[in-house]
Write a structure and sequence with these properties.
Length: about 240
């Protein structure tokens, strides 16, 4: 009789253990499912500035820049500064900047884009918002597809892709705060370049972006700017 009781007791223990294991497995599955739920689409904060390191791949030759992205959506303004504009298809369209290494800025004020070369205070008109040269709107990634969770240089990241055309993907990685306005950029990759954004170099107190006096509509940029204005083809660059 004692053997039967002992066996019954062991069976009950085994059943409880199996139920506990099933419960743990179910919890792990639920946690995994919840973790894979798609977050809210990216929305950029209206004001911020962040430094980045940029890499261009030109015929398998890698060129590196450092720069700063300054964003001011309420005033329809932005500034993208690069330490060297020689590899940028917009920066090379004025004077001899296609052959010399010089700092260059994409300067967008009131939805008009200018190319500014601060070392020599040169400036040329690129294109306007109607031609596709305004600032990126805060919700420009609302059509993006969520690719999943990744890790970018040790930082957890949401990964997205946004297509400009059938073969023109923009890959974006951002931090994982639930509120999109609290996130910051980690990386952007498109065509032949990528920008790595530095997390301890983000600022929310952005100064007003003003247009230098040297900027004039009489000075017309060429290269990619002329393509956006409809005055040249991409093949001609």
């Amino acid at each position: 009789m004692s053997d039967i009781k002992k066996q019954t007791k062991n069976n009950l223990k085994r059943e409880r253990k199996q139920k506990k294991m099933k419960y743990i497995v179910i919890c792990l599955i639920l946690a995994s499912v919840l973790a894979q739920q798609e977050p809210l689409k990216p929305v950029w904060a209206p004001l911020w500035s962040q430094d980045f390191v940029e890499y261009f791949n030109v015929t398998n030759q890698i060129y590196a820049n450092v720069g700063t992205y300054q964003y001011d959506a309420p005033n329809n303004s932005s500034r993208v500064s690069r330490s060297n504009g020689k590899q940028d298809p917009f920066c090379i369209g004025y004077l001899n900047y296609n052959t010399t290494s010089a700092p260059c800025e994409h300067l967008t004020v009131d939805n008009v884009r200018w190319m500014y070369y601060p070392d020599e205070d040169n400036c040329c008109y690129c294109c306007n918002a109607e031609q596709g040269c305004g600032i990126l709107k805060p919700d420009w990634l609302q059509g993006a597809t969520f690719l999943g969770f990744e890790e970018i240089y040790g930082t957890p990241a949401f990964s997205w892709v946004m297509y400009e055309g059938p073969n023109k993907p923009n890959y974006i990685w951002e931090t994982t705060e639930a509120n999109p306005l609290e996130r910051s950029l980690l990386k952007i990759a498109r065509n032949n370049y990528q920008e790595i954004y530095i997390q301890n170099q983000i600022r929310r107190d952005v100064q007003n972006i003003t247009l230098p006096a040297s900027c004039s509509y009489q000075n017309q940029c060429g290269a990619k700017c002329a393509v956006f204005r409809g005055e040249a083809t991409a093949q001609a660059i």
